[in-house]
Design brief:
The protein is α/β, with parallel strands linked by helices. The protein contains twelve helices and nine strands. Strands 1-2-4-6-7 form a five-stranded parallel β-sheet, covered by helices on one side. Strands 3-5 form a two-stranded parallel sheet. Pfam families: Exostosin_GT47.
């Protein structure tokens, strides 16, 4: 009888210790969960942890803490949304767009002429019904300075942009401004975020923007257009006569540079898989940059030859 009691006591003790061990582990695991896992589904996670994420950023630690507006929103380029970085009070009337005069953005008496590509963008805006020459009536502001090509090796690269931006009396840290960009960074890395200046709270209308840097509901993804792309296309009545589906030789075509490494390399290095030389023509070349031969891969010679083969046919697709 005494033996049974001892065995029962040992069994109960083991059960109690097991409960304490596994129960404590469960409590510890639940406390280690991310705080937003226990929040109701209707809570905006970005709003709940806005300040916490920014306070932990290296930039704000270097500058001595958080930087907030009077409206209790955080002055952070990466966190910008329409409700935090855009002044809707400027858009109460008719929607209008203002383009800065190039003379206002020039540091010297010499006015920098925009590249033909950027001038096309400005021309389209100026000829639209949304353009205004009165900044007090504008909802959006567009720079007269050319920001399309931010490759330091390009002849269209504009220098001293930060200093020029600070001289704009309506810049206001970029709020309600739109910045157009096609290329950023330079050879051989072509880093996406290398504009060479801080866009602040400005909306980026940018080509080849990754999901990492794209700010949903704020930035605008635009196609990468060629320098020879026409400012206006088609003859009168072309839209109504050019019905879909169209009868063309090529269904899909692309002809351009291939970056062996860095931004854009993963996508363009895979285009040859789709190239069938019939209705899908996707050809690339490794020949760009001063030392492209030092970085070329095993497909470069073949790709370069295929690229040259379609040189005379590029106007057909």
């Amino acid at each position: 009888m005494q033996a049974k009691k001892r065995y029962l006591l040992v069994l109960l003790s083991c059960a109690f210790l097991a409960y304490c061990y596994f129960g404590g582990y469960r409590l510890k695991s639940e406390s280690a969960r991310l705080p937003y896992e226990n929040l109701p589904t209707y809570v905006d996670i970005n709003e709940q942890f806005y300040d916490r994420d920014l306070e932990s950023s290296p930039h704000l630690r270097r500058t001595g803490g958080t930087q907030k507006w009077a409206s209790n929103t955080v002055n952070s380029n990466q966190k910008c949304r329409m409700e935090t970085c855009f002044d809707f009070s400027k858009c109460r009337g008719e929607f209008k767009v203002y383009i800065y005069p190039q003379s206002e953005e020039s540091e010297t008496a010499t006015i920098l002429t925009p590249s033909p590509s950027y001038q096309k963008v400005l021309n389209v805006i100026q000829e639209s019904r949304y353009y205004t020459s009165d900044p007090s009536q504008a909802c959006l502001f567009v720079l007269g300075i050319d920001t399309l090509d931010r490759d330091t090796l390009s002849s269209d690269y504009v220098r001293n942009v930060p200093a020029r931006l600070q001289k704009l009396r309506l810049w206001n840290e970029g709020r309600n401004h739109v910045i157009f960009n096609l290329y950023s960074g330079t050879w051989p890395d072509y880093a996406e975020d290398s504009l060479g200046f801080d866009p602040g709270m400005a909306i980026l209308a940018k080509a080849s923007m990754s999901v990492t840097n794209f700010r949903p509901g704020f930035d605008v993804s635009i196609p990468l257009f060629h320098k020879n792309h026409p400012e206006k296309g088609g003859e009168s009545g072309f839209v109504t006569t050019n019905n879909f589906p169209v009868s063309k030789k090529y269904l899909l075509a692309f002809k351009g540079k291939r970056y062996v490494h860095g931004i854009g390399s993963e996508t363009r290095n895979s285009l040859y898989h789709l190239h069938n030389e019939k209705d899908i023509v996707l050809v690339t070349t490794c020949r760009h940059g001063k030392s492209w031969k030092e970085l070329k891969d095993e497909r470069c010679d073949e790709d370069n030859a295929e690229y040259d083969r379609y040189l005379l046919c590029q106007t057909q697709y």
